[in-house]
């Protein structure tokens, strides 16, 4: 469901462009709102959420999908934790659909899906691992890299139940906003994938802003 936001970026507490292939790790306070903007269109922002006060609690695909009875995320979707508690709600969305089924790209999955020689290409899992290694203060380890959301990514489900990677439905300037219901650690990998159309074969920056 498309929903524009009343917030203006000139009032934001924080605003930053995340280059393609980089990560962004940030602690949001309960009640704050995060906007992720697809600056150039057809980019995928692979995102993990943790309870900032107890990172054993984190975003859960199964609890979220069961809670809303729908496979796709958009306005009014409540992102639920592995303790089945609401972590964040999508309060605005000008893209209309976000994937949470496809998972993130990894060097291992690149070799299975594409070619053995893709083994050394940069993947989202590498960016998350780098974030974990560079920020020991949060106590995260590789075991905390679990369910994620692919904002702006289009992964339709066929009648037979297959997942397909399709051309993006996003476009320059489309955004999604999430309001936090607890203190939340956000870890975005701005996807560097070059082998499928999730980012138009051309990774580009996204902008993050917090109110
Ligand atoms: Zn990726």
UniProtKB/TrEMBL annotation:
<feature type="domain" description="DUF1989">
    <location>
        <begin position="18"/>
        <end position="185"/>
    </location>
</feature>
<protein>
    <recommendedName>
        <fullName>DUF1989 domain-containing protein</fullName>
    </recommendedName>
</protein>
<dbReference type="InterPro" id="IPR017791">
    <property type="entry name" value="UAAP2"/>
</dbReference>
<dbReference type="InterPro" id="IPR018959">
    <property type="entry name" value="DUF1989"/>
</dbReference>
<dbReference type="Pfam" id="PF09347">
    <property type="entry name" value="DUF1989"/>
</dbReference>
């Amino acid at each position: 469901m498309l929903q524009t936001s009343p917030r203006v970026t000139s009032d934001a507490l924080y605003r930053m462009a995340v280059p393609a292939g980089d990560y962004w790790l940030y602690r949001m306070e309960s009640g704050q709102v995060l906007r992720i903007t697809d600056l150039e269109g057809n980019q995928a922002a692979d995102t993990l959420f943790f309870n900032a006060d107890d990172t054993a609690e984190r975003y859960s695909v199964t609890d979220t999908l069961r809670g809303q009875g729908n496979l796709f995320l958009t306005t009014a979707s409540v992102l639920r934790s592995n303790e089945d508690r609401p972590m964040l709600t999508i309060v605005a969305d000008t893209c209309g659909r976000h994937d949470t089924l496809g998972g993130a790209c990894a060097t291992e999955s690149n070799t299975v899906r594409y070619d053995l020689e893709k083994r050394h290409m940069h993947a989202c899992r590498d960016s998350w691992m780098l974030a974990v290694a560079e920020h020991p203060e949060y106590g995260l380890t590789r075991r905390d890299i679990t369910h994620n959301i692919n904002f702006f990514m289009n992964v339709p489900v066929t009648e037979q139940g297959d997942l397909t990677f399709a051309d993006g439905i996003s476009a320059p300037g489309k955004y999604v906003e999430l309001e936090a219901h607890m203190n939340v650690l956000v870890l975005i990998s701005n996807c560097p994938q070059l082998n499928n159309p999730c980012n138009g074969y051309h990774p580009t920056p996204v902008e993050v802003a917090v109110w």
